[in-house]
């Protein structure tokens, strides 16, 4: 079973602080995706990482895929209240016809 | 591009009612759609995979007679919660893919509340 463990589960920080959150697995994934979901809405894809060791930047968000393709991290610089939301990582299930396995998510709250 | 629309966004109904939720891909043809269920502050749990023109495949533990899925066209899949009860109250989200190895595009979800 491919499980994705996300940590920390909850995070509350002050505006302007930096943070890093994690998505870990004992299984190798061909790719990992990060989504942000706001209350009452569907998840929105932020990034897909494919190559081991890959780093992708999206404005103040930096995503890294582990060398062994078993883990990923998301670093946010100078967090803003608009970054508040549920951050989900997901990876394709092996041999499962495009199905995704999701982590349990990280609830981030950025206080003004 | 790649917009997925869900309707309704919110529904409240009495116990025993059947409720239909629609998922439409607005600007692309979706060979595959997925239906998820999400409880508050929790992750998405895949319920079933919907393929156009064929029967849906359900995840283990999901009752196919309870959650009826119809994927009648390349732009529309429907989920019907039959004889809904309070324990069926949840946030239901669909996603659609244009083809294999393509990203999933998610709808904005449907909040279902059964009284």
Helix content of chain B: under 10%
Q: Stretches of chain A where pLDDT falls below 50 for ≥5 residues?
A: none
* Rg of chain A, nearest Å: 14 Å
Tell me about the largest β-sheet of chain B.
Answer: 7 strands, mixed
Strand-residue fraction of chain A? over 45%
Rg of chain B, nearest Å:
13 Å
Shape of chain B: globular
What overall geometry of chain A do the principal axes of the alpha carbons give?
A: globular
Strand proportion of chain B:
over 45%
N-to-C terminal Cα separation of chain A, in Å? 40 Å
Helix and strand element order of chain B: EEEEEEEEEEE
Q: What structural category arises from helix and sheet content of chain A?
A: mainly beta
Q: Please count the beta strands of chain A (DSSP E, at least 2 residues each).
A: 11
State the assembly state of the protein chains.
heterodimer
Helical residue percent band of chain A? under 10%
Low confidence ranges of chain B: none
Helix and strand content put the structural class of chain B at mainly beta
Total of helices of chain B: 0
- Terminal CA distance of chain B reads 37 Å
């Amino acid at each position: 079973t491919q499980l994705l463990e996300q940590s920390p589960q909850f995070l509350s920080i002050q505006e302007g602080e930096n943070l890093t959150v994690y998505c870990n697995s004992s299984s190798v994934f061909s790719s990992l995706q990060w989504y942000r979901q706001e209350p009452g809405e569907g998840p929105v894809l932020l990034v897909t990482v494919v190559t081991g060791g890959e780093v992708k930047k999206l404005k103040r968000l930096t995503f890294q895929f582990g060398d062994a393709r078993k883990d990923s991290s998301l670093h946010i610089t100078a967090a803003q209240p608009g970054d508040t939301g549920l951050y989900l990582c997901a990876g394709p299930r092996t041999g499962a016809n495009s199905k995704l396995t999701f982590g349990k998510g990280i609830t981030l709250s950025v206080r003004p | 591009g790649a917009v997925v629309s869900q309707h309704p966004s919110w529904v409240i109904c009495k116990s025993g009612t059947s409720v239909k939720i629609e998922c439409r891909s607005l600007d692309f043809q979706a060979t595959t759609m997925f239906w998820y269920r999400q409880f508050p502050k929790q992750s998405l749990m895949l319920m079933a995979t919907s393929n156009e023109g064929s029967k849906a495949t359900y995840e283990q533990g999901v009752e196919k007679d309870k959650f009826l899925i119809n994927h009648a066209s390349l732009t529309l899949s429907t989920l019907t919660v039959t004889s809904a009860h309070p324990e069926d109250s949840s946030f239901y989200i669909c996603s659609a893919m244009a083809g294999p190895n393509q990203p999933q595009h998610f709808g904005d979800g449907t909040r279902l509340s059964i009284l």
